[in-house]
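Quick one: structure tokens for this chain, please?
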Amino acid sequence: MQTTFPRLLMQHAAKRPAEPAMREKEYGIWQALSWLQLSEMVKAIACGLHQAGLQRGEHMVVIGANRPRLYATMLAAQSLGAIPIPLYQDSVATECVFPMQNAEVRFALVEDQEQVDKMLEVREQCPQLTHIFYDDPRGLRNYEESGLSSLDELLVVGKAFAAQHPVFFDEQVQLGQPSDVAALFFTSGTTGQPKGVVHTHHTLTDRAEAGAEFDHLTEHEEVLAYLPPAWIGQNCFSYAQWLVCGYVVNCPESSSTVTIDLKEIGPTYYFAPPRVFEGLLTSVMIRMEDAGAVKRAMFHSFMALAQRVGPTRMDGKPIGVLNTLLYGLGNLCVYGPLRNSLGFSRVRVAYTAGEAIGPDLFSFYRSIGINLKQLYGSTETAVFVCLQPDNEARADTVGVPCKGVQIKVAENGEVLVKSEGLLKEYYKNPAATAEVLTADGWYHTSDAGFIDAQGHLKIIDRVKDVGRIKGGAFDGAMFAPKYVENKLKFFPQIKEVVAYGDQREKVCVMINIDFDAVGNWAERRNLPYAGYTDLAQKPEVYEFIRTCVEKVNADLAADALLAGSQISRFLVLHKELDADDGELTRTNKVRRGFIADKYLPLVDALYGGKTEQFIETVVKFEDGRSGSVSATLKISDAKTFAPVKAAA
């Protein structure tokens, strides 16, 4: 698609001026913003930013949740030829310093007082930051910092300038070219400093169009924008595809009202990482365990039918007359009300990505009539690389290459991608760019995988993380930590896992329990506990987790390639892994190397044969204070199984 985002905005405003472009929930009421109103807002903000001195090619940071005025500001910056940089709203101030220094940011638009405080804190290290605009004025009345002003004030200035120069905005929009840089996305920095991924209007719109064509998206879709705009996935679904398709993006009131807002909007096109789908299913199962005996029996009976025939039905294959009738009854009594309770009654297409999704979880949603599929992509590929066709959705693949994508697998098993959506470069990092982009246009994904007989891509793990067991019964066997971690996370009671085993004789893991799920499990068994640390170390919890670990081992034993990745020993951590403590990235990916260093005594105890180990850990609280959590952690052995030999 040879266009720019501001041009797409103006096209929608011209063709469909009165139709809603966005909705925002304020004080419990949904407020609609039409395409014409949005274009006028973008025009005023752009003129105001021009008056403030924002230059073509300059970077502007945008920090906040999904809000129409933040989206409008990104469009306004792009209209002037400037480049928005969305940053995570839950990042601490120090995490904002490198991106802002790297991109020499002078302008920032933030959502509220919390983000203003963050920008004022980084000013000492980023003295070039001269302009800070805020959307929500609450709590900011007495702030007298230089260069700090509200978006409302900027709009007043912009409207006055636009009235005096009526053609300025349109001229600026027409100056923009598809090859111009549209946005800069910083990676999560799993292994070091974040890298700025440079995307043009063309790379983003081309992939957005490819995804829209694949799933037949139209302007009639409804989308709920609730994930961080700084994440490329949310940005593609609620910004790039929004402007390409012209559908409605709905912004929830707050993170705490998302589940309510989801039910009220009833999106037709939905996107969430597996963690969200896990959380929704966990809440359903917790409610069902607390339900009456009759309702519980009916639920489990119809769910058994759904698990047996539902996925086949979703794939468009016949399930027989009797099963069709029974499924229809189940739809009336269980599946329909359940979809409605989840907010998925109108979902036509639902996607998950970012991490592998468990087969049971995947099957559950498809079995009750939700068209849940997987996709494969990254920040560097503008998301859309592989997508699953409606009738070929499987838990163990990430789909087939979508329009304009070529895939090949290198000798070391690494997946290489070529498409129109590849990054232009890593900002000010030619060495890193050269590492991932070949001279003939292939992108190194760093993922290990292969194309199966049906043409679907299967991802095993990160290439650098795939290791080998050294010594012991499985000497020389492949070790895929992420694969092991994901299989354990398929259990709703397990929230996070960190696996180790490369160049060691056995695999050991550290586990985070899901506090809500395990807490409910404990309460139904009259098992008292005094908080996360206490619950995590209960003998009954350890025994329950052991059964999960051994089920995973039994599954791994049946896979000739990964039988050596079975888990020999495990412990349950005394605290939840947290991005604020450096243990996770802002996209909730485990920083395995950092954790190994931080919890070295635990790793040594796992491999040293100890049955318990004392640990004290410094933690950061939400208000910025530090504290410590200490506990003596139990270490348990788990049963491993001999590899299952394939039938002759």
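The longest helix spans residues 293-314.
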